[in-house]
Amino acid sequence: MKLHEYQSKRLFAAHGVPIPGGDVATTLQEARRIAEELGGPVVVKSQVLVGGRGKAGGIRLAQTPDEAEKVAGEILRLEIKGLPVRKVLLDEAADIQQEIYLGIVVDRAARRPVMMASSEGGVEIEEVARTNPEAIKKVTIDPFLGLRGYQTLTLAKGIGLAGEYRRAFDRIARGLYAAFLAYDASLAEINPLVVTAGGDLLAVDGKMVLDDNGLFRHPDLAEKRDLDEETLAERQAREAGLSYVQLDGQIGCMVNGAGLAMATMDIIKHFGGAPANFLDIGGGAKAERVATALSLILADPEVGAVLFNIFGGITRCDEVARGIVSAFEEVKPTIPLVARLVGTNETEGRAILESSGYRLITATTLAGAAQKAVAAARGELAAPRPGLVEG
Amino acid sequence: MAILVDKKTRLLVQGITGREGEFHSRQMIEYGTQIVAGVTPGKGGQWACDDRVPVFDTVAEAVAATGANASVVYVPARFAADAILEAADAGILLIVCISEGIPTQDMIRICAYLDQKGARLVGPNCPGLLSPGEAKVGIMPGHIATPGSVGVVSRSGTLTYEVVYALTARGIGQTTCVGIGGDPIIGTTFIDVLEMFENDPLTEQVVLIGEIGGSDEERAARFIVERMTKPVTAFIAGRTAPPGKRMGHAGAIIEGGSGTAAEKIAAFEAVGVSVAEHPEQIPDLVAQNS
Fold first, then answer.
1. Most Cβ neighbours (<10 Å): which of A97, A126, A217, B145?
2. What are the tens digits of pLDDT across the range B211-245?
3. Mean pLDDT over all residues of chain A?
């Protein structure tokens, strides 16, 4: 789960990281009031969960409360990379002398958190990694020892930070690591961390991504999920305990297992079609969950055919077939349906589907199923005609 | 001979009285796995699986009484971290964790602790291990596999079953099928398993099933070219996965433009490993190697 800039910075501040004075506004009146309270020039920043806000006109400077109100109004009307701007953050404008990057990610190979610093602040770290990897300095953090002073010194020297700022840098780095631990983050980033004209270090922008598996320990944060981060269908799926990702193709996919679901999408593409979604109905696949899954797929107007790919292992095909049939009763599909049921109790499963009153196009191999689904979505598969059998 | 588990494995089941634990314990016993003990805190002294398996409160008690030397964990995610640490602390050297949803930061500490103890963790969020004709530890359906000479290692569950089933249908048997799990931090990586297969005299070739996210496949490709003599066939799921979206598994995500299927496929092809276009091609490629 991603947190907004203002949320991330407040959590960093709670662990001793200095941030600019500021507050969030959803209306022009609030924006004006905040600008008035802050006094001098302010930066008005759109709070949306995508990168590239500055280029899209979502971060602008305002000299006076009047200007702040006007600029906030313009930004609140923006849509950035498809996401509406619902909130703006107004921060005291900093007099910036130097910009650096400081972040923590989980290094999957090392199985440790890694703290990274770069003298090229204000630029996305992936961009620096491509153009100037030498500029990025890293230290690996031992989970039992924590972040040590010599490590933050190594980073500070590595990026050429002047000696007078190293004590403040150490405090900020430790604060960032404390926040990373405290909220089960998978990423915590200050970009840029600036040196001001007054000689202070200040976290001007912040970003945190929380580990969804750790959210049960942070119910207060879990409630703050920005619903714009996912589509309506994705949210409904998450609430129903399904893994669903919306794509832009025509073939809806319903599969048990994440790896198999990806392989099913891939094979559709391989045979010239395009998957409409990723969907893992999970193990067991109870009727209610299958029904929710099917309605999500069918709610997408682009979907021209549905492919069921079920591999019965511990999950039994007859159980899933019963789920599919009861889902039909609820959602009454009118587009072609291709079903492939293989593995435990496949014969029973197929029999249940056949006696459902719906005619399905069946296949035994994955390749066969994918080819039939592609043809069906193009309207090329005439028989057997899908849909409710009369009488 | 197989890797990791065989007929001699003395298995302990953590969470044996839970719904999943009990169901899969019965399946494992039916397959021929020696389950010597179960652990559920508060239920010590009871018996599970039709009075065939004694239940203990702690892993240490179970090990002392039964000589268990491997453990499988079915307990819910919030208790799973503790269960793994308890097993390692009791001297168990092979721990297989089926549970899904353990926080990444818990896994970081668990892996660091297990390294100190010299214990191996397989998983979490994995289907476990299956050595056909010998033993099964986890949730893989036993009947889809048959003894033979192909080692299978995978980050996935049902996709693995699909491939194993396709191999078996073609008369190609397996030494051991290893599900290493779909999380970002896992105890046993592709390289660990490839090394075991390379050293296992009965394994003649290996099938590796990877997916998007991380760079474990790229490291596997380097290991194959530098250290392996046995042929490897690969498949990578997620060619059509969009960046930035988690594809079911917590670890299956393209982040910052890296971890794509294309990079992984290129890494394997660069070292001469054949990569299947789709799962049903795998038996064809394996047959060409034998």
1. B145
2. 999 999 999 999 999 999 999 999 999 999 999 89
3. 91
Cross-chain Cβ contact B211/A259 below 8 Å:
yes
* Region(s) of chain B under CATH 3.40.50.261: 141-289
A207: Cα separation from own chain's centroid: 13
List of chain A residues whose C-beta atoms are within 8 Å of the C-beta of residue B182: 258-259
pLDDT attached to residue A140: 98
Q: Which of B185, B212, B246 sits opposite A106 (nearest CB)?
A: B185
- Is residue A27 within 8 Å of A207, Cβ to Cβ? no
- Mean pLDDT along residues A202-211: 96
A274 CB-near residues (< 8 Å, 6+ apart): A247, A248, A249, A250, A251, A268
CA A258 to chain CA centroid, Å, is 17
- Catalytic site residue from A189, A234, A319, A346: A189
pLDDT of residue A320: 83
CB contact under 8 A, B159 and A109: no
Predicted pLDDT of residue A285: 61
Q: B-chain residues within 8 Å CB-CB of A129?
A: 256
Place of tokens 């949803």: B101
CB-based contact B185 A181, cutoff 8 Å: no
Asked if B162's CB is within 8 angstroms of A311's CB, the reply is: yes
Judged by CB atoms closer than 8 Å, whether chains meet at A112 and B247 is answered as: no
A163 touches chain B (CB under 8 A): no
Which CATH superfamily is B141-289 part of? Succinyl-CoA synthetase domains (3.40.50.261)
pLDDT at A102: 98
What gap in Å lies between CA B171 and CA A59, rounded to an integer? 63
Beta strand B70-73 pairing with B10-14: parallel
- In our burial notation (b when 16+ CB lie closer than 10 A, e otherwise), range B217-228 reads bbbbbebbeeeb
Residues 304-323 of A with CB under 8 A from B: 311-314
In the chain, the amino acid numbered B191 is: I
**How many C-beta atoms surround the C-beta of residue A329 within 10 A?**
12
Distance between CA atoms of B27 and B280, rounded to whole angstroms? 27
Q: Is A101 a catalytic residue?
A: yes
* Nearest residue of A to residue B211, measured between CA atoms: A259
Contacts of B136 in chain A (CB under 8 A): none
Phi, psi dihedral angles at A4 (to 5 degrees): -75, 165
Q: What is the CATH number of domain B10-122?
A: 3.40.50.720
pTM of this structure: 0.93
A127 touches chain B (CB under 8 A): no
Q: What is the mean pLDDT of residues A256-274?
A: 96
Answer yes or no: do B250 and A184 touch at CB < 8 A. Answer: no
Residues B24-56: tens digit of each pLDDT: 999 999 999 999 999 999 999 999 999 999 999
Location of each CATH 3.40.50.720 domain in chain B: 10-122
Residue ranges of domains in chain A, CATH in brackets: 1-20+95-229 (3.30.470.20), 21-93 (3.30.1490.20), 231-379 (3.40.50.261)
Q: Taking a contact as any Cβ pair under 8 Å apart, which residues of chain A between 268 and 297 contact chain B?
A: 268-270, 275, 278, 280
Residues 20-49 of A with CB under 8 A from B: none
